[in-house]
Design goal:
Layout lengths: L2 H18 L8 E4 L7 H8 L4 E4 L2 H5 L4 H9 L5 E3 L8 H13 L4 E6 L1 H15 L10 E2 L8 E6 L11 E5 L6 E5 L7 E4 L9 H20 L5 H23 L4 H21 L3 H13 L3 H16 L1 H13 L9 H18 L15 H12 L11 H11 L3
Parallel strand pairs: 1-9, 2-3, 2-4, 4-6, 5-8, 6-9
Antiparallel strand pairs: 7-8
Helix pairs in contact: 5-6, 7-8, 7-9, 7-11, 8-9, 10-11, 10-14, 11-13, 12-13, 14-15
The structure holds fe (ii) ion.
Fe (ii) ion binds next to helix 7 and helix 11.
């Protein structure tokens, strides 16, 4: 990237980073432990809420993951309405349907239970409830929600997206199929419930890909230029927890400790990246998700080592610190050796969990230019990456991740 564009990107990031100190990135109140979702009705009572809208998807609902919560709501004689039709990549139609339900039933709070999509719908419905005259399109981009949401409780059923701690809702315009984010600290859920019992039956493929998504959040935020004291410590703690627990969780999902530790890691990584951003791994993964529907975590897992290598010496110091945090090398190793060991550890994790080394003829050569342009548009100038890359440099990464 040329000197002037790079200078512009860095200045833009500095301004955003400075402005962020004046915004409230209020961390959710965390309620955790096996069976923690059943504590929510008592919490609602205590806080004076009585009519929650439950937002979930048909899979989670039919697996019975909402049952302990619903049973307790019944026991506490709370009136609730269930919207269980959340779709992957939630559309305006889906969100408006849930919002209409909330309005019709005078709901005073929202409980989103599921993966990233359910939490996105919960946030978007909350944004509409506090801005009934604004459309979702009008809230596109940064800081357009502005008003405080009704009580929003997020209950993740995977350990990866970190959406229970983030300020973004990703939605799809039903007419144009355009996917975009609504980003505002007001969307950060007031309460995150980390109930490890909900993760017992997760398929191995979801454990590996969502776990590597969490790792990508932690690594990308840690090596970027917008770290704060808190996001630095959260990211490093998330990497430690992932190193100690992801493979154990993958090998035996019934084992409680690794499961709850991974849930904690995903949460910490979520808090970290919502303030300190992600980088080119996510930008490239989003372009592949939009075009070819590649699962987000899987795309990140494959792309992460390639992008870290492309950052070269610019990321080495930070990667060496992460390497030290999980003691990958013997004492006396150089910064370069530690960084190399950290990337090799990621590749090893991928291999152990059956994640392929590259995409197998997924990316059409004729699409690369457009995909790289989209990744470039998403990442530059916003993401405070260790090394700025332009579209042409990103094109080289697309060629590496899918050698034709
Ligand atoms: Fe992600």
């Amino acid at each position: 990237m040329n000197f002037f564009v790079r200078g512009y990107c860095r200045l833009y990031q500095k301004i955003i980073n400075f402005a962020s100190y004046f915004l409230s990135f209020k961390e959710p109140e965390v309620i955790q432990g096996e069976g923690a979702s059943a504590k929510i009705p008592a919490y609602l009572h205590k806080k004076g809420f009585s009519r929650p809208l439950i937002v979930t998807d048909p899979g989670i609902y039919s697996l019975g993951l909402c049952d302990p919560l619903l049973k307790k709501l019944d026991e506490e004689s709370l009136t609730y309405i269930v919207y269980k039709d959340v779709v992957a990549n939630p559309t305006f139609d889906c969100i408006n349907e849930a919002f209409a339900m909330a309005k019709k039933n005078n709901c005073d709070s929202i409980i989103a239970i599921g993966g990233g999509s359910s939490m996105d719908v919960g946030k978007a419905v909350g944004a509409l409830m506090s801005n009934p005259k604004k459309s979702l399109s009008k809230m596109r981009g940064i800081l357009k929600v502005r008003k405080r949401l009704p009580l929003l409780i997020a209950i993740p059923t995977t350990a990866g997206t970190g959406s229970e701690a983030t300020l973004a809702a990703v939605v799809v315009n039903s007419k144009t199929h355009e996917k975009f984010a609504i980003e505002d600290p007001k969307l950060i859920p007031a309460v995150a419930v980390l109930d490890s019992s909900l993760l017992k039956k997760l398929p191995k493929k979801i454990i590996s890909s969502t776990g590597m998504d969490a790792l990508t959040h932690a690594v990308e935020s840690y090596i970027g230029h917008s770290l704060t004291k808190k996001t630095r410590s959260y990211a490093i703690e998330a990497v430690r927890l992932i190193s100690d627990n992801l493979y154990a969780f993958y090998s035996n999902p019934e084992d409680e400790a690794p499961r709850s530790n991974m849930q904690r890691a995903a949460y910490l990584a979520g808090v970290s990246f919502t303030r300190s951003y992600v980088g080119y791994v996510h930008a490239i993964a989003h372009s592949l998700g939009g075009e070819y529907n590649v699962p987000h975590g899987l795309a990140n897992a494959i792309i992460l080592p390639y992008v870290l290598k492309a950052y070269g010496v610019k990321a080495e110091k930070a990667l060496a610190r992460l390497s030290d945090a999980i003691t990958l090398t013997k004492s006396g190793a150089s910064t370069h050796e530690k960084a190399v060991a950290f990337i090799a550890w990621i590749e090893d994790m991928n291999e152990k969990m059956g994640i392929p080394k590259s995409f197998d003829h997924l990316i059409k050569p004729e699409d690369i230019s457009l995909l790289a342009a989209r990744a470039n548009k998403e990442a530059n100038p916003l993401y405070p990456v260790p090394k700025e890359m332009n579209k042409n440099e990103l094109i080289e990464i697309y060629k590496e991740i899918d050698p034709q």
